[in-house]
Amino acid sequence: MTADSDLLIIGGGQAAGELAAALRSRDWGGSIAIVGEEDHVPYTRPPLSKAYLRGEVEAADLYLRRPDFYDRHGIAVSAGVAVADVDLEAQTVTLDDGRVRTWRKLVFATGGRPRRLPDSILRSAPNVHYIRTLADVDRLKAVRTDGASFVVVGGGYVGLEIASVLRSLDAQVTLVEAADRLLGRVTSPVVSEFFRRLHRDRGVDVRVGTAVVEYQYSDAGNVIGAVLSDGSRIAVDQLLVGIGIVPNDELAARAGIDVDGGILVDRFCRTSANDVFAVGDVAKVTDLDGEPPRRLESMPNAVSHARVLADYLSGVEQPAVDPPWFWSDQYDIKLQSAGLVVPDDELVIRGNPDERRFSVLYLCDGVVTAVDAIGSPADYAAARKLIAQRVPVDAGIAADPGRRLLEAALASAGTTD
Amino acid sequence: MPEVTFTQPSGERITVSADVGRSLMKVAVENLVPGIVGECGGDLSCATCHVFVDVPWVAKLPPMTAEEEQMLDVTAEEPTAASRLCCQITLTEDLDGLSLHVPETQR
């Protein structure tokens, strides 16, 4: 029997687009199909909460490659179609319009969806927004911002980026974070405090250690007020909820593939089923040299998975070697991060947060494991190399902003020999 | 449509034509030009679309922003006076014939 496609990718986001292109750039000769729920060819999400929301770029600029790219390279894209069911034994998928497609190899690039507040807490209302897709941001762009009161629930990167754009569009913004600091899961207190001050100085009413305990509704069903745990009440014109992502792993689980808060894969993106793979936000990598399994929600991670899998399918077993990396733009501030921050890391601060130009190195047993660089690309670049090469550094020498970081690291490596 | 030539470290020349207004990084990625990664999508955050511009063309390109200059610190291969990030170069009719060299490594 001839399969409809040699490789079928479920999901049409960036991981899917990059995987298809990477396979073609490696001269992979099989047929490739992408089935995605959104009405678009694969596009890149990071600008959604930045330049796209600001109105500086158009939807077509978000497309990774123009629609004709896929035709020219033998990649069949079905947009606006969901996969309803996967049968591993028959090697088929059933689409939500009832059609059945056969495949030889299958890739889950199903991503994630915004974690929703339960209906018991927040009913769905026309002025409640979750931010993940182009359609979500188009909806947000259609509302009036000038002088309007926006409440952002959740102090993660997406919430902060959106708050910064809304401020530049003259909205009044209140940001509510239940934890005692912003970005608590991903960075150190010094970076959290930097962003709290940055947003406060730009006029965002930042409330940390505070949760919304009650939403108030108009007769028409819109949210008009939020009551906080400290008893205060905030007027709401628009409510944005950014409290994380839930991996879309249910389809894989129903098919009998191992999942545990994401689809479990090894470092080559192989799932527990033969010829079935998972990439991007949905994939949880389990064989990390003694580190706990991890699932990352980032565009660079999706691209990295796509490359690793394209190599693997082309006969090259080349696991990812770069540390995870990430960036965020808020106002005129650029943050670049690499590695993963662990709570008991030793902190080395280079430069001065008051000058909005500093970096934080995270050391574990004297080795740099992560960096947050604000307005300091040279430190970011140097730290990426140090993380990858596991060079031991002397914290005192590395903290001297008068020395270039790489030189400082080499000097400290010399002292430890 | 203007034509741009990307010369590979091997000496292989890849000439592509593209619409005015498109960034050179996107043009390269859409044409599967090896060695242009464009990992961040043109947000000046990854420096994986580094190119060396052939000298006659250097002065014809729009000047660099401070941000692009800073990000050239992050390239995998040592930048030179002819280095640019091609996500920051928008294709115009005047750039017809532009010639660029792709570095050995981007990341």
Automatic annotation (TrEMBL), chain A:
Residues 325-406 form the Reductase C-terminal domain. Residues 6-306 form the FAD/NAD(P)-binding domain. The keyword Transferase does not apply. GO terms for molecular function: oxidoreductase activity, acting on NAD(P)H. SUPFAM superfamilies: FAD/NAD(P)-binding domain, FAD/NAD-linked reductases, dimerisation (C-terminal) domain. Gene3D superfamilies: 3.30.390.30, FAD/NAD(P)-binding domain. Transmembrane segments: none annotated. The keyword Zinc-finger does not apply. One of its GO terms (cellular component) is cytoplasm. Its cofactor is FAD. InterPro entries: FAD-oxidoreductase/Apoptosis, FAD/NAD-bd_sf, FAD/NAD-binding_dom, FAD/NAD-linked_Rdtase_dimer_sf, Reductase_C. Keywords: FAD, Flavoprotein, Oxidoreductase. PANTHER family: APOPTOSIS-INDUCING FACTOR 1 (PTHR43557), RIESKE DOMAIN-CONTAINING PROTEIN-RELATED (PTHR43557:SF2). This is Ferredoxin reductase. It comes from Streptomyces capitiformicae.
Automatic annotation (TrEMBL), chain B:
One of its GO terms (biological process) is P450-containing electron transport chain. It comes from the Bacteria. InterPro entries: 2Fe-2S_ferredoxin-like_sf, 2Fe-2S_ferredoxin-type, Adrenodoxin-like, Beta-grasp_dom_sf. Keywords: 2Fe-2S, Iron, Iron-sulfur, Metal-binding. PROSITE patterns: 2FE2S_FER_2. Coiled coil: none annotated. Residues 2-106 form the 2Fe-2S ferredoxin-type domain. It holds the Pfam family Fer2. Gene3D superfamilies: 3.10.20.30. One of its GO terms (molecular function) is metal ion binding. CDD domains: fer2. This is Ferredoxin. It comes from Streptomyces capitiformicae.
